[in-house]
Every structure is written in structure tokens, then in C-alpha cells.
Amino acid sequence: MEVRNSPIGVFDSGLGGLTVVKQIKKLLPKENIVYFGDTARLPYGSKSNETVRKYSLEIARFLEKKGVKLIVVACNTSSSVALDLLSQEISVPVIGVVKPACKKAVSVTKSGNIGVIGTRATMNSGAYKDTISSMNSKIKVIQKECPLFVPLVEEGMTDGEIVEMVVRYYLESLRGEIDTLILGCTHYPIIKHVIAKYVDGDVRIIDSSVEVAREVHELLKREGILSKGETAREDAFYVSDFPQRFEEMAKLFTGENLKRVGKIYLE
Amino acid sequence: MEVRNSPIGVFDSGLGGLTVVKQIKKLLPKENIVYFGDTARLPYGSKSNETVRKYSLEIARFLEKKGVKLIVVACNTSSSVALDLLSQEISVPVIGVVKPACKKAVSVTKSGNIGVIGTRATMNSGAYKDTISSMNSKIKVIQKECPLFVPLVEEGMTDGEIVEMVVRYYLESLRGEIDTLILGCTHYPIIKHVIAKYVDGDVRIIDSSVEVAREVHELLKREGILSKGETAREDAFYVSDFPQRFEEMAKLFTGENLKRVGKIYLE
User: Fold this and answer.
1) What would be the CATH architecture of the domain defined by B3-96+210-263?
2) Cα–Cα distance for residue pair B78/B81, rounded to 1 Å
3) Which residue in A221, A263, B34, B124 is a FRET match for B175, CA 20 to 30 A apart?
4) Is B259 in contact with B33 (CB distance < 8 Å)?
């Protein structure tokens, strides 16, 4: 099989990375996806860097064996702490979600004050801060960890008083201080409307899933391995566990029902 | 070594089971503990029964190898779905948290209406409902899953407007309907004061960790294997990952700093 007809591998700690799949399919409808969600071992955001690296490498090797032409690390935590390791160990190109979002934020900020929100592990890694500084050292980055956003989204609590109050609790210190806000977690696009309402219309919100899809497009074009849609294939989805409410969750992130879902133990 | 001098094994998906350790040590200060917290793979509450059973058996075998005389399954989810399997596969007695709490609740209820709160997996298992019904089929059990309580506690949000609002969100339907409420999760004792304030003083709140400590005492006495404190030993704590904020979390659940903590991969 020609490389250009190979699928794109995408992984996340759970189903949140399906927001990335959705954007890739929207921009590149001829591409096929092999997705892995580590639903048995999520969340990564509260784990040590060592554990996240170990799990990420296991998954990347699994995708490599599936013959993917490119791996997208849709998990912000993995992108922040495991990307260098994966680039060394894996034979196909590896793209994380951090850099594309930073590039976009740096290009649109006028005040030079960018906010980034994410899990505790992502924020502690300093990956967003470091990446933005390497692009433009004059930009000020204000980070804020928001550990309750993921459980709120997974509870389906995407509207109403409680989510509004939690948004205010976390983002109060950023309000009025920034003109650009990076959503540094694949779950956050689901509550983007609540965040946007609170920070008000002047703040440009950067959704990593949209930016990473653009990066995928550029890389495939540059390498000459964009699919021409010559072979009819289906996307394949693997998870390490079928969690409670699997279907509801998948629908929340993709807007549709998933076909061809398999369960894999990596150990 | 005589069996009575062997330690008691306690495990949980994370550090929440330390609330059980605290109660055992309070009631039985001469006993030694070997604790295992599966911090790399928590939470169990949103995983499938099959996965929870697999993980629980791995941990119970680890504790068995450590020479424990008894295993306490401090995790409500494991107690609900894996207790029968462990009792079959493990050579020492195994005690879960469900039965002791149910026994207490059945003995104190006057109205015959008992509320139970816990994770989604614990509630879906129906373990509390079935156990109470087997003790007294006339008692009405009202279950309510509260998936946000664990992340709130782990975020250290144990007081204030947000936790009060989430408590009201989940418990509104129970208020006035019950006279006894079982806290069916090892994290919940940490926000017991908020729950108690909301459901008002007439509701008797049953803390499983207190009840399971009593059950441990009875079993050791019955079997003649209560420690006489003849050998000086230290408690040992194992986790599958040192999560972010490990020390803060341990302190939250035990009120003190943990000594002798080791990290173990079970795979």
C-alpha cells in the first residue's frame, strides 16, 4: 500500500481527542483515522510524567503497528511531556497539540498577553509557556490549571449555574489580563461557549483541535502523502475499556455514533 | 511468624481508602497495615466491571504475597463488583465496605427509607440495594450517583459555594425522603460536614470507613488473630504512581504525613 493511503493515527487518554478527529475529518475528508483512547487508565492529567511517557509510548507503538503514516498526540498532557520521547522512538512523524495552538496564538495576539488553561500536569510541564517563549520571548503567558473542567464535561454538565460558577472560579484572575486564550485540553471545546461568555467577546479563543488539523494538512502536503481517497476504508476506533456511558460520551465529542470500536489491553 | 502478627491488607483505587486505614488504626492501634492505592489507574468508578475485577485481583494477589492475614477492599466500586471473585481466588478472608455500612444503616433506620450515594459504577452495580434488601426486604433504598464529589475532594474544594451547590444538585431529590444516608465512597467523609448541613440534622449519616473498622475488629476476634502488638513493625504504603500533589492528598485523607511509601507497577 502506498503511504498516502495509510491512515492517520490519533490518540488521547480518553475520548476527548475525538474533538481533534472531528476537525481532521472536516478539513481532510479523504483521510482515514485509527484512534486509540486509553479509557482504562485516564485521566493522564493527574499522573506523573514518567507514567504518562510510558503509557504514551505503548500507544504510539500500537498505532505504528497499525501502519499509520503520522501520529497525532491529541492529549495535551502527553503532548506536553512525552512528545520528544515519541519523536525519538517512533518511525513516522509525530504531531502534538501544543505547538499548533501556540503558533496561532502568537500570530493573533495584539496585547502580547496570552492565557493558557489545561490540566494540572499540562500546566506544570510549562510546555505552552516554553513553546510561546521560543516563538516570541516578549509575550507574557498566564497559565491557569482547571482540574474540574474535565469531570464537569464528562458528567455532561456543559451548561448552567454550576459550570458557570466553576468557570468564574478558575478564570477570574485571567479576565481583563489577556486578549487570547488557548484551550489546552481536548475536553474544553465542549464548554467553549461558557468560557467565551465569561471572558467576554474581546478575547480570541484558540481551540487546539482546529489548529492541529491545519498542521496535519500542511505536513501531509509537504511530505506528498495526502490521501487522494483512492481506497475505500473505514475509520477504526480502539479503547482500553468501554467505560460507563461510552456511547453518550462518544456522541458528546463527535456529534455522531462511532462505528468499528474495538477494545485492546496494552499490557 | 504467627498469623496474628501479620499485617492487614487494605486497598483502594487511590488514596481515599486511607480514610479506612485511619479508622482501623484508631480502633485497633496494635494492628499493622499494608496499603495499596492504584493511583496510576484511578478512578475505578467510571470503568467497566470487567476492568475493575481484573485490577482488583492483581492488587489482592500483591497483598496476599505480602503475607497479610486479611484483605479490606476499601474501594466501594471494587467492593460492589469484585468481592465474590476475590473471596474465591484469595486464600485469606476478604472484607468489603458495602456490607458493614448496610448492616449499620438497617439497624438505625426508623422510617425504613435509606439513601445511598456513590460513584456511577457503585450505584449501577446495585450492590448496596441488593445487600440491604437481603437484610430487610421492606426497606426502601434510594440511590444517587454523585460523580463530581471525588474530583471536588481531590481538587481540595471541601468548603464553599461550589461544593455546596454540587451537594444540593445531587441530593435535592433525597432531601426529606430518607432518615439514613450511607456515604458509599471513601472520598465522601471529607465533605461529610457539607452533606450533613444540607440534608439537615435528622438524617443519620453512615460513614463506611467507621463501620468496616468495626467489622475488621469482629472478624479478627472471632478468628483469634487479633494482634497483641508483640512485634514492632511499621505500616507500609504502596502506590502505582506518585501523582501530582501526592503528599497533600495523603495528608487530606489521613491528617498526617505518610512514611514508607513505595511505588509498584503491577503489570
Assistant:
1) 3-Layer(aba) Sandwich (3.40)
2) 5
3) B124
4) no
Which helix or strand (DSSP H or E) is residue B204 part of?
A: strand B204-207
- The DSSP output letter for A217 is H
Residue at B102: amino acid letter = C
CA nearest neighbour of A71 among A56, A81, A52: A56
Among the listed residues B1, B3, B72, B26, the one whose alpha carbon sits nearest the alpha carbon of residue B227: B3
Q: Which residues of A touch B149 (CB under 8 A)?
A: none
The active-site residue, picked from B185, B203, B213, B239, is B185
Residues ≥6 apart with Cβ < 8 Å to A193: none
Between CA A263 and CA A96, with CA B267 as vertex, the angle to 5 degrees is 60
Judge if pTM exceeds 0.80.
yes
ipTM attached to this prediction: 0.84
Average pLDDT value over all residues in chain A: 92
Element (H, E) at B222: helix B208-223
User: For residue range A177-207, what is the model confidence (pLDDT) as tens digits?
Assistant: 999 999 999 999 999 999 999 997 789 999 9
CATH class of the A98-209 domain in this structure: alpha beta
User: Best of B49, B51, B245 to disrupt the A interface by mutation (most A CBs within 10 Å)?
Assistant: B51
Asked if residue B178 lies in contact with residue B111, where contact means CB atoms within 8 angstroms, the answer is: yes
**Range with the poorest average pLDDT among A8-12, B95-99, B240-244:** B240-244
Q: Tell whether A48 is within 8 A of chain B (Cβ).
A: yes
Nearest CB to B161 within list A150, A155, A165: A165
Q: At what angle do helices A18-27 and A246-254 cross, to 10 degrees?
A: 40
- Matching fold, domains B3-96+210-263 and B98-208: yes
DSSP string, A159-207: SSHHHHHHHHHHHTTTTTT-SEEEE-STTGGGGHHHHHHHH-TTSEEEE
Cα–Cα distance for residue pair B267/A54, rounded to 1 Å: 12
DSSP helix/strand/coil, A257: coil
Question: Which CATH number applies to B98-208?
Answer: 3.40.50.1860
Chain Cα centroid distance, residue B121: 14
Nearest to B37 by CA among A124, A46, A82: A46
* DSSP label of B190: G
Under a CB-based contact definition with an 8 Å cutoff, are residues A131 and B138 in contact? no
Q: Enumerate the domain spans of chain B.
A: 3-96+210-263, 98-208
